């Protein structure tokens, strides 16, 4: 694709996506710069075999309160998630998505922030986007979260550099509410995620979080554990937030061969089952190196 694609967000009064890709296959985007947008650069819904390689994503100004919006959103094909697109809204998943060798950061344009990189912020019950690889990218000054695995299955986050992001990597859960008809929407969580060989420095809130979810009201309850997360061989330094790695409601969690230094708390694990923590180097923390409850 190439070129410089400028969203001119300071001239816009309503939020917009730069590109929507709906129910497509074999999409390749190479060596382009995308700058100064207000919602998503790419809204990718229900697509398969997508490669984004060697691109720059710089400058984000949310016109509405969507400060969490990602430069690259990966989602199922729903009317709520991709309004106005063509094709039947049938919850088709995204599958085989690769983002590699890209830069996400600031543009220097007035009133813009660092880019939230890749992820999603909505989900469909029983539906998981899967086989997603985020490899050898640099994320700098992400305003909300650089990489957000929101109820994906089979994700690899490897060889990336995260500099001064609010959150570097988030692994999270969907559902957990009651709809307008009073029907319970169950909690469902991400699963099968590998986070390896990343360098993370200066995170403002978390370097990595992996949080399951529970919901309780007077008539309903639902909960979901994140399953099969491996956090291995990462270097994490200088986290500003209280918890460097935070894992809540996880099953089959492995935290191995990481180096954590000059943070507040190194590793927090709460309400979790089957944990393996081995061969990590944790030093110079102001509170606990490991806290488990």
Largest sheet: 11 strands, mixed
Give the N-to-C terminal Cα separation. Answer: 50 Å
Give the percentage of residues in beta strands. over 45%
Q: Based on helices, strands and strand pairing, what is the structural class? A: mainly beta
Low-confidence stretches: none
How many helices? The count is: 0
Shape: globular
Q: Roughly how much helix do the residues carry, as a percent range?
A: under 10%
Mean pLDDT: 93
Radius of gyration: 19 Å
How many β strands by DSSP? 34
Multimeric status of the protein: single chain
Describe this structure in words.
With 293 residues, the protein is mostly beta strands. The chain has strands at 4-6, 19-22, 25-30, 33-37, 42-45, 48-53, 56-60, 72-75, 95-100, 103-105, 118-119, 130-135, 138-140, 147-150, 153-158, 161-163, 167-174, 177-178, 184-185, 188-189, 191-196, 199-201, 206-211, 213-216, 221-224, 226-232, 235-237, 243-248, 250-256, 259-261, 265-270, 273-278, 281-283, 290-292. Strands 2, 5, 8, 11, 14, 17, 20, 23, 28, 31 and 34 form an 11-stranded mixed β-sheet that branches. A 10-stranded parallel β-sheet has the order 1-4-7-10-13-16-22-27-30-33, with no helix packed on it. Strands 3-6-9-12-15-21-26-29-32 form a 9-stranded parallel β-sheet, with no helix packed on it. A hairpin with a 5-residue loop joins strand 18 and strand 19 (184-185). The model has no long low-confidence stretch (mean pLDDT 93).
């Amino acid at each position: 694709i190439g070129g410089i694609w400028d969203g001119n967000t300071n001239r816009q009064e309503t939020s917009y996506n730069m590109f929507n890709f709906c129910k497509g296959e074999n999409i390749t985007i190479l060596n382009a710069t995308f700058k100064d947008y207000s919602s998503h650069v790419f809204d990718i819904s229900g697509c398969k075999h997508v490669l984004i390689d060697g691109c720059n994503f710089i400058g984000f100004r949310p016109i509405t309160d969507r400060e969490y919006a990602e430069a690259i959103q990966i989602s199922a094909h729903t009317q709520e998630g991709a309004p106005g697109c063509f094709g039947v809204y049938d919850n088709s998943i995204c599958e085989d998505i690769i983002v590699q060798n890209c830069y996400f950061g600031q543009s220097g344009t007035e009133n813009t922030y660092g880019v939230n990189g890749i992820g999603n912020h909505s989900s469909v019950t029983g539906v998981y986007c899967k086989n997603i690889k985020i490899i050898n990218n640099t994320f700098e000054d992400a305003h909300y979260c650089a990489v957000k695995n929101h109820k994906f299955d089979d994700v690899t986050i490897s060889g990336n550099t995260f500099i001064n992001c609010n959150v570097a990597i988030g692994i999270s859960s969907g559902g957990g509410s009651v709809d307008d008809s009073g029907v319970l929407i169950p909690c469902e969580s991400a699963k099968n995620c590998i986070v390896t060989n990343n360098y993370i420095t200066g995170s403002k809130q978390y370097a990595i979080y992996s949080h399951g979810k529970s919901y309780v009201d007077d008539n309903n309850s639902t909960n979901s554990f994140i399953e099969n997360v491996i956090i291995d061989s990462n270097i994490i330094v200088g986290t500003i937030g209280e918890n460097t790695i935070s894992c809540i409601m996880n099953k089959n969690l492995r935290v191995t061969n990481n180096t954590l230094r000059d943070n507040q708390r190194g590793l927090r694990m709460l309400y979790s089952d089957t944990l393996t923590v081995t061969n990590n180097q944790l030093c110079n923390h102001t509170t606990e190196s490991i806290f488990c409850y």
